[in-house]
Design brief:
Layout (H helix, E strand, L loop, with lengths): L1 H27 L4 H29 L1 H21 L3 H29 L4 H27 L7 H18 L21 H7 L3 H28 L4 H21 L1 H5 L3 H21 L3 H15 L2 H12 L3 H30 L1 H18 L15
Helix pairs in contact: 1-4, 1-5, 1-6, 1-8, 2-3, 2-4, 2-14, 3-4, 3-6, 4-14, 5-9, 5-13, 8-9, 8-11, 8-12, 8-14, 8-15, 9-12, 11-12, 11-13, 11-15, 13-14, 14-15
């Protein structure tokens, strides 16, 4: 599991640095809020489509092989994205980085779910590694930017780490890819993933999860951007608020994993939605940067509960775990896609605080809709 552990941390490094540096990137390329939302939607839409395709590929070639291939490609693309100076060249590089990142996301989640199948608490604890990486990435980016160094030096460093981990993963590649023990019989191999999800009774959870990711993806971009752009806070306060949210998430996932891993999908969505919605609403309404920063920390911490808790339930209830995880990963990216242009347009047209309130409404809607999610038990023969 060593390379998979390292991949989770490295992926967190990227997103933590992105949350802090998006303000500087926006100003480097003169992107309006609406343009930034469109660019993110384009990049993440293609990443989501790639995740759906790679879920099928993973069943054939194995998650480990997909992981090292995607890490090597991702490392090179991060360097390219750091060096381009034209706006649309940057957009093109970002799209490719997100496509490769979607493959990494699918592969590492599939590998973790496969190996920790039947151990939901361990899976929740495993996702704390991502938050640990996000804390490191956001802290490093905040320190570098505060020192007056360009944001362009951060991602080549992440690329070196990704390259090393990709080569490590390649060196640990097994000679023969093991079959997924949770897979359905061969006769069901040609069932469409969404049909299989519906047959497993997880279709409503899939839709609610996509809505939940509107908030989680939005906090990573718009939460810190709001503090720095519109409340004129320094980079250290913006980065610090995000780091506090990630520390809350990491602590909750790691220390409380046994209790949290037993939460039903309904309770997970209810708790996460209320905390995230309340925190983001506080950030959007407060004129004080310190109070708004507290709201961001709550929003990031609450939203971070969605992914691991839903995935732990999917790993227990799905008839084919790897395929289901890939489908839910794609749905998560769709949520990010849906949120980015809407928040960007509302922020540009009606004001940044209203853009944040879109995220708050989405989070509270997740909490409300969670009551419609039917509690299910694993089928006979599935791990409990």
């Amino acid at each position: 599991m060593g390379p998979v552990v390292a991949a989770f941390i490295t992926f967190g490094l990227f997103w933590g640095s992105w949350a802090v540096m998006v303000f500087d990137i926006q100003h480097t390329f003169a992107l309006s809020d609406a343009e930034l939302g469109f660019v993110l939607a384009l990049a993440i839409a293609l990443a989501g489509a790639s995740s759906a395709v790679m879920a099928h590929v993973t069943n054939r070639v194995g998650a480990r092989r997909l992981l090292w291939t995607a890490l090597l490609a991702w490392s090179g693309l991060l360097v390219v994205m750091s060096t381009v100076h034209q706006k649309w060249a940057f957009v093109g590089a970002l799209v490719l980085v997100e496509i490769a990142g979607g493959s990494i996301d699918t592969a590492m989640n599939a590998e973790a779910s496969h190996r920790l199948n039947g151990r939901p608490a361990a899976l929740v604890r495993f996702h704390a590694l991502f938050n640990g990486g996000a804390i490191l990435g956001a802290t490093a980016a905040g320190i570098v930017l505060h020192a007056g160094v360009s944001w362009r030096v951060i991602w080549p460093g992440v690329a070196v780490v990704a390259l090393v981990i990709g080569l490590w993963t390649l060196s640990r590649q097994p000679g023969r890819v093991p079959e997924d023990p949770s897979a359905s019989p061969p006769a069901a191999a040609h069932v469409h993933p969404v049909q299989r999800i519906r047959r497993d009774g997880l279709l409503l959870l899939l839709a609610v999860f996509a809505l939940a990711e509107v908030t989680e993806g939005g906090v990573d971009t718009w939460g810190v951007l709001y503090l720095r752009n519109h409340l004129a806070t320094g980079v250290l306060l913006g980065a610090g608020a995000y780091v506090v949210g990630q520390v809350v998430a990491a602590t909750t996932r790691a220390a409380g994993s046994t209790l949290i891993g037993r939460l039903s999908a309904r309770h997970a969505l209810l708790v996460g939605g209320c905390i995230a919605g309340g925190g983001i609403l506080l950030e959007s309404l407060s004129p004080l940067s310190s109070t708004a920063a507290l709201g961001l920390a709550l929003g990031a911490g609450g939203a971070s509960l969605f992914w691991p808790l839903v995935m732990s339930n999917v790993s227990r209830l799905a008839s084919q775990v790897v395929s289901a995880v890939g489908t839910f990963t794609a749905a998560g990216y769709i949520g990010w896609v849906a949120g980015a242009p809407v928040v960007g347009w509302v922020s540009q047209t009606y004001g940044p605080q209203h853009g944040l309130q879109v995220l708050a409404v989405a989070a509270l809607a997740v909490a409300a809709v969670s009551f419609a999610v039917v509690e299910r038990r694993p089928r006979p023969g599935q791990a409990d």
